[in-house]
Design goal:
Largest sheet: 2 strands, antiparallel
Helix content: 40-55%
Strand content: 5-15%
Number of domains: 1
Number of helices: 4
Length: 99
């Protein structure tokens, strides 16, 4: 599931504090409303995102990372940092060892 397109971006937006649909859309450049809605539903079904309905007029829907979602984000953080490090200037930070 994590490898599916936009899933990582949705999890990252949640980790950065997105709560409402519009906040996710604003934080994830290029995602369509339909695909964002689909990913949120999938992540909710997987127990990674919690959805709360606030019965006001109009109804408000809030999303947040579930404990398992937060654990997944924490587990993926070193990989994301490694990826950012690798995408720097060619050869920067690469250490080769002959031992």
């Amino acid at each position: 599931m994590v490898g599916r397109r936009w899933t990582g971006s949705v999890l990252q937006a949640a980790a950065q504090g997105a709560r409402r649909f519009g906040e996710y859309r604003a934080m994830i450049d290029g995602i369509s409303d339909r695909l964002l809605s689909q990913r949120l539903k999938e992540l909710e079904a997987a127990g990674l995102i919690e959805r709360t309905v606030i019965p006001t007029t109009p109804v408000q829907i809030r999303y947040q990372l579930a404990p398992d979602g937060q654990a997944l984000v924490n587990a993926l953080l070193p990989l994301a940092q490694w990826s950012m490090h690798r995408s720097g200037p060619r050869g920067a930070g690469r250490v080769l060892s002959s031992t």
